[in-house]
Amino acid sequence: MRVRLPSTMSRKDGQLEGRLDDLLSRIAMETQEIKELEQQLTSSQILANEALQRDLQEATTGLQEYLRGLRQQARRYQQQVHVLQAENQSLRRLLQDSNRYCRMVQDPQEELSALWTEVQALRVRQAELEAELRQLREEPAHQVQQEQFNPTRIQLEQLPDTLSEPENQTEPQDGTSSTDSLSTKRLHGSVHQNQTGRQEVRQAQTQTVEQNLAPSLASQGTQDSGLELQYLSSPDRGRHQEELPPGGRIHPTSNDPTEVVSAGISQGPPAGGRMSQRRDKGGRCVSDCMEKKKTQRSLQRHRSVLQVCDELMCLEETLLQRRAELRQADRLLLEAQSCRRTARRDTDSLQHRLDDSTTCLLEATWHLRELQEGAELLRRKREEEEQHLRKIEEELRSRQEELQQLGSKVTRAANRLADLLSDCQEAQERLDSLTCQEQRSAWLPGGSRELEDRRRRTDRSGTRTSCPPFII
């Protein structure tokens, strides 16, 4: 019995020691794992959290600064847009004023164009009047020539009639042929005198016309073109027209000497001194008629010359007036053209300024649109960063929850470890007491039962205190 008790006690002691070693190893392993987990969680997670927080703070500060800069740029561009809009409105008002001024300039320009057409028409009219004036200057000479040749032509037409009549007369009538020859000689002499007088009158007329026209027309010259000429009313023009027949020509009157001569030839002279008296009387009548005709023609020529001079003076006055009007119209036309050129330059400069302002406005709107797009992109990035930050915060929250769970598990494991250590100490104390009792029982017989009972109780308590391994 004594041999069995120590063997069983030694076996139980070995079992208890093995269990205690297992428990201690398990406790050491669990504590080591807990320490490693704490180190991992504390070092890596804290560093990661701090890095994430720094990154998030830097990103948020950068985004805030960039958004602040974008807002300032947008504010500046809005101010520039307002300034450009104000300039655009002012330029539009200036353009409207310039268009109004152009319309105001175009109205007198149209008037000037109408005046220019009138000037052209007046120049044409002046050319026509100058042609008429030349015709009027040439007309007196032509009229004088016609007046010179008309009586001679009439006399020459009547001479064949007078010469064909003596064939049917008697011998006493043959004496009248000498008288007829004398009358024809006188007639030719009177015609010659008439021609010389007409030449003298023509020379005097040309001299008077040149004297009247030279100081007026030569002084004015032909530099300016005249306008529409109108004959001014002269005081003697109506009287001259009443006195002169139409065309300025004088038809032969009833007391023409040809009629007297032809009458004398056709009737024939009576015999004796009556023939000489009649011949003398006929010669005197012819000379009186010729002188009267000459004086009438000279008066008519002088009247026509005076009328032409009056008309020329009127024409000169109208030419002077029209030339003054033409100079004034040219001056107004030049002023209007200069005003038009200045208005065109002003409109061109305003148009350039308007184009520049529109380009600046378009560029400002384009920059503003780009800024708006950039702000939209930044807003989207900010939203994405905020979502990412929310995810990180959720992960941090989950990690913190896991840390809290691990901390609670560690505390529970530490509590259980403390309990196990207390149980181990109690078991060690019991084991020590049992070893002491075994030693005593070995020396003292009869105490084996009590020792077995105590071992059983210790075994029961050891099995009760033994726990499963800690699982994290």
TrEMBL record:
Q: Where is this region: Disordered?
A: 163-209, 237-297, 447-472
Asked whether the keyword Coiled coil is assigned, the reply is: yes
Q: Locations of Basic and acidic residues compositional bias?
A: 277-293, 449-462
Q: Which organism is it from?
A: Poecilia formosa (Amazon molly)
Coiled coil residues, start to end: 20-94, 368-437
Name it: Uncharacterized protein
* Superkingdom, natural source: Eukaryota
Q: Where is the composition biased (Polar residues)?
A: 165-184, 191-209
Sorted UniProt keywords: Coiled coil
